[in-house]
Amino acid sequence: MIYLKEADVFASGVLKETKGSIEIKDPSKFKEKVVDDLVDTIILGKSDYMKRFCFWVAYNAGISCGVIPSSIQGLYEAFGKGEVSGFTVPAMNIRTLTFDLVRSVFKSAKKINAGAFIFEIAKSEIGYTDQRPVEYSSMIILAAIKEGYKGPVFIQGDHFQLKAKNYLQDKDKEVKQLKEVIQEAISANFYNIDIDSSTLVDLEKKSLDEQQKLNYEVCSLLTKYIRTIEPKGIVVSVGGEIGEVGGKNSTPDELHAFVKGYKKATGRIKGISKISIQTGTSHGGVVLPDGSIAKVSIDFDTLKKLSEIARKTYGMAGAVQHGASTLPNEAFHHFPQVACAEIHLATQFQNIVYDYLPLPLKEKIYAWLHTTCAAEKKPGLTDDQFIYKTRKTALGPFKKEIFSLPKDWRDKICLVLEKEFSFLFEQLNIKNTKALVDKYIKLVPVEKKKEDFLKEEKDLGELEGAD
């Protein structure tokens, strides 16, 4: 592994700096000799300056190679107009080994000419996986370059969520901190943002409008904010949510109450392109005492009805399914059949990595969890349940150790996950969607200055939100 110095980047003659931008003189050598060194420096290097320098090189190299961070808005508007249908867009949260796993995604996508897929990270995941948005987007761009993938790349902020308790205590402070995260994400090429103010829904209120009022007002407020900071030429795709995942199933009347209130509050400003609902899932699944995951029964009728209302009545892409990672394999082909617009997948990818971790490292991580997360060991919780619920929090503290495992192990885990991605892509029917993406997505390479990357990152403190 090589940790670069600034002079090293240009010493090979593979690329050069021209007026604050990057010119790649030999793309094949750049992929072979420079990309991996950039990744190593970002993940393992000790110099914050060099990490930021590598972010700048990665972004500009991506633009030079035709890897363009984009909004999926155009495709979702085509869904709403009935011009495209028949597939469900997977949105994948990559919590660890991001560069390697994203490479596997691009490999799977290229095999079937797929283009309709999203990489995302939740607000809480940014914290516990130790991946700030600019690092996450840099890994995705470098992985695309490595695999020779070109065109729009969709990067999304998932569950950018308000905490109800904090909001009720000091709403201005809670909204301000979420605006800061949104601004950081958009600056880091996240042109798709899912606002989750569903935590503010109050089911004790009498009318549906009253129940959804804080939800749609805050979602509208944050949508307006996004429109003021999105880059010129890009309409950030914004998502809303009416039912917190893990709660009661959503209803058509709740969707109408939210959207009508949201539209009134938002006015003529471009609104949300999709709506997340609850249909019976929970984040990470329900863990049984032996550590296995309970079977989940999704209400596909609700998903179909609400997706149809969102699409036909309000011109959105449709409904979004969260918490789907741990569903049985036989469930996934149903999502395109019920016109689900987007499905969020995370925990299963993490589970596969843990399944293949070398035993000594796994035991080290689990011992750390028993010490560090001891307060979360509630009465009646088995060791298996405790480990399953908490092990995601070790991904940040052990990020460098996991990344530093031998290449043959990383190759092995990537092969397993490549098969997983290929299976999901087949079930969600995104084969040959690259042509649709190219048709409906306008490429807007955003010009960024070198100093935009070299400035110190603002410390936004501990991030909370959905798992």
Notable characteristics:
467 residues, alpha/beta, TIM Barrel, eight-stranded parallel barrel, 11 strands, 49% helix, globular
Please sum up the structure shown.
The chain is 49% helix and 12% strand. The protein is α/β, with parallel strands linked by helices and 467 residues long. Helix 2 packs antiparallel against helix 3 (48-64), helix 5 (98-111) crosses helix 18 and helix 9 (171-187) crosses helix 10 (208-229).
Question: How is this structure best described in words?
Answer:
It contains 20 helices and 11 strands. The protein has 467 residues and is an alpha/beta fold. The strands form 2 sheets. The chain has an 8-stranded parallel beta barrel, surrounded by 5 helices. The chain has a two-stranded antiparallel sheet with strand order 1-2. Helix 10 links the parallel strand 7 and strand 8. It starts with 5 loop residues before the first helix and ends in a 13-residue tail after the last helix.
CATH topology of the largest domain: TIM Barrel
Low-confidence stretches: 283-288
Percentage beta strand: 5-15%
CATH secondary-structure class of the largest domain? Alpha Beta
Strand-pairing-aware structural class: alpha/beta
Largest sheet descriptor: 8 strands, parallel, barrel
Distance between the termini: 32 Å
C-alpha Rg, in Å?
21 Å
Annotation, overall tally of beta strands:
11
In CATH terms, the superfamily of the largest domain is Aldolase class I
Write the layout of secondary structure elements.
Layout lengths: L5 H6 L3 E4 L2 E4 L2 H18 L3 H17 L2 E4 L2 H8 L8 E5 L4 H14 L6 E5 H6 L4 H15 L3 E11 L2 H6 L1 H17 L4 E5 L11 H22 L7 E5 L10 H15 L7 E4 L22 H13 L6 E3 L12 H4 L4 E4 L1 H10 L2 H14 L10 H8 L8 H5 L3 H21 L6 H7 L9 H5 L13
Parallel strand pairs: 3-6, 4-5, 4-11, 5-6, 6-7, 7-8, 8-9, 9-10, 10-11
Antiparallel strand pairs: 1-2
Helix pairs in contact: 2-3, 2-7, 3-7, 5-7, 5-18, 9-10, 10-11, 14-18
